Amino acid sequence: MADLSRPAGTAPDRARPTVVVTTVASDSHTWNLVFLQLLLEELGYHVVNLGPCVPDDLLVRHCREIRPAAVIISSVNGHGAQDGLRVIRALRDDELTAALPVAIGGKLGVDGGATSHAERLLAAGFDAVFEDGTDTLAAFRRFLDDLGTGPDRALGARPRHARAGQARHTGEQMGVLA
Questions:
Q1: Averaged over 36-42, what is the pLDDT?
Q2: pLDDT in tens, 134-163
Q3: Burial call 142-176: b when 16+ CB within 10 Å, e when fewer
Q4: pTM of the predicted protein model
Q5: What contacts 24+ positions apart, CB below 8 Å, involve 27-34?
Q6: Which of helix, strand or coil describes residue 104?
Q7: Burial class of residue 104, CB neighbours in 10 A (0-12, 13-18, 19+)
Q8: Distance between alpha carbon 176 and the CA centroid of its chain, in Å?
Q9: What burial class does residue 12 get, using C-beta atoms within 10 Å of its C-beta: 0-12 exposed, 13-18 middle, 19+ buried?
Q10: Are 56 and 25 spatial neighbours (Cβ–Cβ below 8 Å)?
Q11: What mean pLDDT is predicted for residues 45-58?
């Protein structure tokens, strides 16, 4: 898949950490990904936007090749929690992406926010889950800050907030992830 986040024939700026943004395979929305890309670029990240409807195996393959600092999955169609469980399993089952920091947010269910999906998604292996809340931008920034400062940090060490049993960024949703 072509990297549409930079002009053809140019190399990514390796001085900036790379973040992959995508949706789940069933989600065809793109405006959320464009907004996320613009936000992340403004914060100093190089962004690879894989676009909508990305199959799990394609996401894993691109993450193996790109070796990003993190993956941000945004869902608008309400199937984020259901599809996210399958996506995180694929990423965690691959030896090169098993430790990759992954966040998911947006409209994660179809019940209007009556059910929190954070606990189940965190238990499955997500490092951050952003659901409805008022402090979501700050929580998202904390997640990004926790990634570390090195450019394209090596896959192999999860960020400090991802240790087993430790509370991770939950109960918050950032509008751009929706």
A1: 95
A2: 678 889 999 999 886 433 344 444 443 443
A3: ebbebbbeeebbebeebbebbeeeeebbbbbbbeb
A4: 0.77
A5: 27/52, 27/53, 27/74, 27/75, 27/76, 27/77, 27/79, 27/80, 27/83, 28/52, 28/53, 28/77, 29/74, 29/76, 29/77, 32/74, 32/76, 32/106, 32/176, 32/177, 32/178, 33/74
A6: strand
A7: buried
A8: 12
A9: middle
A10: yes
A11: 96
Please report, for residues 16, 17, 113, the alpha-carbon distance to residue 71 in angstroms, rounded to integers and kept in the order given. Answer: 15, 11, 23
For residues 109 and 115, the model is more confident at 109
Q: How far is CA 107 from CA 27, 53, 120, 153, 155, in A?
A: 11, 15, 15, 29, 28
Structure tokens at 166: 């430790």
Q: Which residue has the higher pLDDT, 14 or 45?
A: 45
pLDDT value for 171: 40
Identity of residue 25 = A
70-75 sheet: strands from edge to edge:
46-51, 18-22, 70-75, 102-106, 128-130, 169-172
Residue keyed to tokens 């997500």: 126
Q: What is the pLDDT of residues 16-38, one digit of tens each?
A: 899 999 999 998 999 999 999 99
Q: What tokens were used for 15? A: 């001085």
